[in-house]
Each structure stands twice: as structure tokens, then as C-alpha cells.
Amino acid sequence: MAADAEQSPSAASPAASYAKMDEIVSLCARRGFIWQSSEIYGGINGFWDYGPLGVELKNNLKALWWQRVVRERDDVEGIDSSIIAHPRTWEASGHVEHFSDPLVDCRACKRRVRADQLEDAGPCPARQGTSEHDWTPARSFNLMLRTQIGAQEELASTAFLRAETCQSIFLDFKRVRESARQKIPFGIAQIGKAFRNEINPRNFTFRSREFEQAELEFFVHPSEREKWFEHWLAERLAFHRELGFRGDRLRVRPHRPDELAHYARAASDIEFLFPFGWQEIEGIHDRGDWDLRRHSEYSGKDLSVTDEANPSRYTPMVIETSVGIDRSCLALLCNAYAEEKLADGDTRVVLRLPSRLAPVQAAVLPLAKKLGEPAQRLAAALRRRFAVFYDEAGNIGRRYRRQDEVGTPYCVTYDFESETDAKVTVRERDSMAQERVSQDGVLSYLQDRLEGGR
Ligand code: GAP
Predict the structure, then answer these.
(1) pTM for the full model?
(2) Distance (Å, rounded) from C-alpha 430 to C-alpha 408?
């Protein structure tokens, strides 16, 4: 007997299937994607742990970014720098002076919030009658996280956990250019952790205190900065579309002059429509020559280059693309989550993740436990190529639902007929269509579907 025939889903409107955050947060914890760090101690605000499925999703996303931004180009080099840089780095970059948010305290209940996010505070518990907070005037709060370096505390010096990954790229600019024998225009890319002592972490992983960034600093001649800004904006938009973000959930928002960061000459945010509204997932910035000039000044090292066209020296301009890996994972989960009414009245939750990013690419499911041995053999063969999950417990319909819920694109069912016709049933996640495929051909069947594309 082939695996259960299922009732196909009715076409749900995109709005109806666009989930609320609570459901996504609950699924993430229940199925092992993401949960609060130090959960057994009651959690720690603004820090998150990625579980067995979450780490796969995140790694797949980082690998795709690295593939598109570094490997497929001969004008981009990758690095992996230390998290802690020389403390002068952050003076030169302007972070010690400028990297702050406005903060207010309530004199009555002692609640502390960002002055531009007062709504996060809710009513004041200490002022019954009015329930309005008694705010202090706003003051600046620096978001850099500090630590001490050195074995003896009295000799220790204060250092900062990096607030953005790009500063080391500027420090390493000369070394990379010379060792990789690159000429302007070229870029340096890095993926890594960044830390910000956010006053109000919120919206699940969206605003965290520890997060990952994937950044590219692309060094160009001053006459070409607009051209490269447009180039990278288009490249990055194409990447987000490849993640499956459609036009109605993805937009570009150019910054107003009064919004620009201290280093930026021009900037555009790529925004995604989360269940809590339009929010930035990536920034494209024209940073000018601010960083290289400042690090030259503070280090005393010349970071200028020779202009090939007319023999003079200049400091390259920087076009930056900076995407949050955690925010992109969250956008992927929000975009993928759907609740579908099936024709038999049942409802299924399905994560329509792009196949190449799905944490499990294929699940091997023997129809009955006694078919376990050949099914295990099939799973072992597929595992050499794909991320495979094996499950023999429970009714087949329920096992399909469990795989739908974590976004597994294909389920491969080994049934009693498989013993005689040497075929298996392959079920596709979105259409729930089932097809008989020869056991010998199932690897290339999946390869075509999972590794096809660009
Ligand atoms: N080097 C430029 C830079 O760091 P940014 O706009 O401050 O620019 C870039 O950050 C990206 O990093 C953002 O678009 C966002 O995706 C991510 N990001 C920033 N702060 C974050 C936070 N507190 N939690 C999670 N992601 C964050």
C-alpha cells in the first residue's frame, strides 16, 4: 500500500495565513528552532539559543550569503576576525562618542526605557490613580558592551565587544588587499557576532543584545560610489527575493538626511513586513571615506591607495551591505509560516521554507516499524548528501504533519509495496502531491529538486 492519500489544502489568502508572532514563537521553542537563553534560570533578556533545527536554518542562510557574496565573485574576499579589537578602534569609529540611544527612567516605578519607545513601558504600577509614569529628562546611554582583558584585574584594561563586525574589516583592509592582491574596486566580507546593550530588546530575536551580522565593505574610487551603491542595493534585493520574500513584504526605504548615521553619506534600508510591522533587515550604506580616514588618523598607518589613472593617492570610499542573520531567520520563519485548512476540515501548520534553507531536507518514514531496516539503509544513503531525519513512530499522517511544521520539503515513505516494486513514495510538502520513485533513483530525484535553481 502506498502512503496515505491526503486532502489537498484550500487556497488560503496570504493575509489569513500570515501568522501572529505568538504562534511563531511557540513553534520555535516547541520544535527546537529558537528559545530564550538560560531558560532554566528564567531566561536572560535579549539573548537567544538556536536549537537543533534553528542552527541548521541559520547555517544554511549564512552559507547561502557566503556563496552569493564571496564565493561567486572574484572581487570579494572573506575574513573571520576576533570579536574584541583594540579599544582605540571604537574611539576612531565614533562608537565611544556617538553610539547611544536616549534613555529615561520613571521616578516612581524605576522602569527604564528608550525615550523614543515609551509605549514599551505600559502603565506605571507605582502611580495608582493616574498610572502615568513620572519620566526623568532623556539622557544618552552608550550601547557598547564592555569587558576586561588581562589575568590580573588591577592590570586589566577595558575593551568592548564589537557593536558591528565591519570595523575589523577596515583594520584589516591593507593586509587583505596586499595578501589577496586585490585592486580597487573590491570588497571584504565577514559573518560574525555583534553585541549591543539594547535598552529594550523586543519582538523575539528582532532586537537582541547578542546577534549575528553578515557584512560586506566594498572599497571604490570616489567617482564610482553611486554606481556601486546601486549595484549592491540591487544584488541584495535579489538575495532577499531568493529567500522567498515577495514584493508585498519587501521594500526599500531610503534614509532621510536627518536619519543618517554619523558615518553615512547615503543609506537605504531593506525592510520586511513582520507581523509587528515594517522593519529593517538590512542596511545599504555609503560610508564615504570616514572609516579608513579615521583609522589612518588614530593608528598612524597610511590606508590610502594609488590612483592608477593619474598617479596620486586617495582614500577609497566604502559601500556597505549589512544584514542581520537573526532578523533574516525571523523573517524567513514569519514568511514561511502558514496555517492551511484542508478539504477534510483538518488544519495543518506548514513552514514553506525555501528547500535549500530547510533544516531537514528529507524525512525517511517507514510505514510500519517492521520496515525499519531497509528504511534505515535508505536514510543512511541519502544522509551522505542531504540533511535527513528518520522517524518510524506513530501514524503516517501525523508524521507528515510534524515534518510540514518544520518545513521539510520531502518525505520519503518506505511501504510494504517497496519490498516488491523497489519503489518509495515521495511526498512534496507544499502541494502534498505523492509520487512513486524507484529506490535507486530517489537520490537524484531529490538532488534535482533540492539543488536545482541558480
Ligand atoms: N555596520 C553597519 C551596521 O551595523 P546597523 O543598521 O546598525 O548597521 C545592520 O545594523 C543590521 O544588523 C540591521 O539591519 C539588523 O539586521 C542587524 N541588527 C542591528 N541591531 C540588531 C539587534 N539589536 N538585534 C538583531 N539584529 C540587529
Answers:
(1) 0.93
(2) 10
